[in-house]
Specification:
- With 254 residues, this protein is α/β, with parallel strands linked by helices.
- The chain is 21% helix and 26% strand.
- The chain is built from six helices and 15 strands.
- A hairpin with a 2-residue loop joins strand 6 and strand 7.
- The protein is globular, with a radius of gyration of 17 Å.
- The site of citrulline (CIR) has 17 residues, from loops.
- The site of citrulline has 17 residues, from loops.
């Protein structure tokens, strides 16, 4: 069975962290209904939803991806780069414990799950404003015995590695070349985002389809032209919080 761990949109999301986008008012009701449609898409793609209750005091807590790295063998509970987000991990660790042995990233390491891209047995970890080399070392130690190769990747211009590149099919990446050097992934097929849509590289591959923001029409056309099956969702309100489609779930097999 495939499980998608999510968390309800927080009523204080207007106080969320912002790094590269300027603050715009988020309509909470609309954000909630968009989030529900996103969950329905996950369900339609075969996921059972495990939705955690709202965390009223944690504005960014809908973005569960940043709190854990869930592999087939273990779960690594992160130490998010933004201090305001660190309390988010407690309930996530509790929710993951029945499914995986859990391990923690310790100070001075910081890492957001949005910076970790898994491709088979390779973990690419973005060095961003949220993720530091100490955390990369800790991750490498935790996964070494499970056969993973860990590679640190310089991230520039955007929040997370997965703002710049995501997997949209086997060996196929969707990538913004202004933010990430495609040569890091030289053996793989690369689809470049449309340059008019810099935030368009974040897609969520679930099984054989990709959940993708409907706002990036030009890149969506590129994906479809490349033979990628796309399920488009409107996540405009979550985008105002600098979130997108990978960040609102942790998808794993149980
Ligand atoms: C933050 O700055 O942490 C949140 N406002 C957005 C996090 C988005 N996370 C992600 O893309 N993995």
């Amino acid at each position: 069975m495939r499980l998608a761990l999510t968390r309800a949109v927080n009523r204080g999301i207007n106080q969320c962290e912002l790094t590269h986008v300027s603050r715009q008012k988020i309509n909470i009701e609309l954000a909630r209904s968009q989030h529900q449609v996103y969950e329905s898409c996950l369900q339609n793609l075969g996921c059972e939803i495990l939705r955690l209750p709202e965390e009223p005091d944690l504005p960014d807590s809908v973005f569960v991806e940043d709190t854990a790295i869930v592999l087939d063998e273990i779960a690594i509970i992160t130490r998010p780069g933004a201090e305001s987000r660190r309390p988010e991990v407690k309930s996530i660790a509790k929710a993951l414990t029945p499914y995986r042995p859990t391990f923690y990233i310790h100070s001075p390491g910081t890492v957001d799950g949005g910076d970790v891209l898994r491709i088979g047995k390779s973990l690419y970890v973005g060095l961003s404003s949220r993720t530091n080399p100490d955390a990369v070392k800790q991750i490498a130690n935790l996964v070494a015995s499970h056969g993973y190769k860990v590679e640190a990747v310089e991230v520039r211009g955007c929040l997370h590695l997965k703002s710049a590149v995501t997997l949209v099919w086997e060996e196929t990446l969707l990538l913004n070349p202004s933010w990430i050097d495609p040569r890091v992934f030289e053996t793989r097929r690369v689809i470049k985002i449309d340059p008019s849509e810099p935030y368009a590289a974040n897609a969520l591959l679930v099984g054989e389809k990709v959940i993708y923001p409907s706002s990036f029409g030009a890149t969506l056309d590129r994906l479809q032209d490349a033979g990628i099956a796309v399920v488009a969702v409107d996540v405009s309100e979550l985008q105002k919080a600098e979130g997108a489609v990978t960040c609102c779930s942790l998808v794993f097999n149980v």
